[in-house]
Task: structure prediction
Amino acid sequence: TKLRVGLLFGGCSGEHEVSIRSARAIANALNTDPNPSKYEVLPFYIQKDGRWQSPDIAQSVLESGVPLPSEETGSPTTRTHLWQFPPLAAEIDVWFPILHGPNGEDGTIQGLLQLMQVPYVGSGVLASSVGMDKIAMKSAFAQAGLAQVKYMTVNRSQVWSNPCVYPKLCDEIEATLGYPCFVKPANLGSSVGIAKVRSRAQLEAALDSAASYDRRLIVEAGVVAREVECAVLGNDQAQASIVGEITYNSDFYDYETKYTEGRADLHIPALLPEAIAAQVQTLALQAFAAVDAAGLARIDFFYVESTGEVLINEINTLPGFTATSMYPQLWAASGVAFPTLVDQLIQFALERHS
Ligand code: ATP
Ligand code: MG
Ligand code: MG
Ligand code: MG
Result:
């Protein structure tokens, strides 16, 4: 008998559209040999307002690629929709959550699936939430001895409700980090809410804007570096892929550059000295272990060519998974084709649960 795979996509996040594209690629892979003999795929779509849609509606969203419009969910009666799962959800043998960003990559869905007592692909609650929160993530990496850029943490209340603290805060950022620096909401992805700033006026505007996305912010010293990424696959004996590089023609790797066709190029493998590539792989596995990740993660680094330093930027526990995304491309180049990758991820989910 076939295993029923619940492909969970969409989600209450700014990365909703990307999730639809990732899910479409995974659904295709589940319909590619040898997977159809092993798995039956049932898609479930989470609307931007949080409502779950059954496989028939989910399938039409997968095919059209167009999100369903949201409805008001603020009142207690409409909120009950949020935990009324389609009946078929009770028949899933293994979940494949492919939700990016908040409410999907951050441990919230993982907690729900954990309570359902059904195996699921990818990291558990702890790794997901630590990986999503850039402040917690950096603490875990620092504890593991991984080199990172200099940074400061900021609370929304310092930016918004305390006019006396604010100028002092900006002075401190200028003195500690200088320009350019990057202002980021602690808990997001796809560069949403991130700004590169070069002056006091830009810093103030960026802090104000980032504070509207998250209660906690992080400000990092900007580095001039090449951006290299490594994919990790597995559980306790996880493996690192070959290393890839991203290049682009914009100020930094922002949302538009990430998702506009032709704006960024992936180079696989990255043209790096062998020792640097090997170091990136080792650091990727250390970062994976440092947050207790499982199944998959893409770990991103800054390679400062002038000094030879490799600094860890971040871990993404549910990285972009479209046919052209870095994660599956790195594995394809390392000898694991897309349908095999999806199969292995499901097998690692079962292994972890057993
Ligand atoms: P993802 O979509 O990979 O989850 P994200 O939203 O978590 O991304 P980051 O990876 O932290 O965001 O930053 C986005 C981009 O901003 C980086 O890929 C890089 O181009 C640029 N960037 C971020 N921080 C720095 C820094 N400290 N120095 C130089 N460039 C930076
Ligand atoms: Mg990220
Ligand atoms: Mg991300
Ligand atoms: Mg990133």
Notes: The pocket of adenosine-5'-triphosphate (ligand 1) is lined by residues 149, 182, 184, 188-191, 194, 220, 222-223, 227, 252-253, 300, 313-314, 316 (CB under 6 Å).
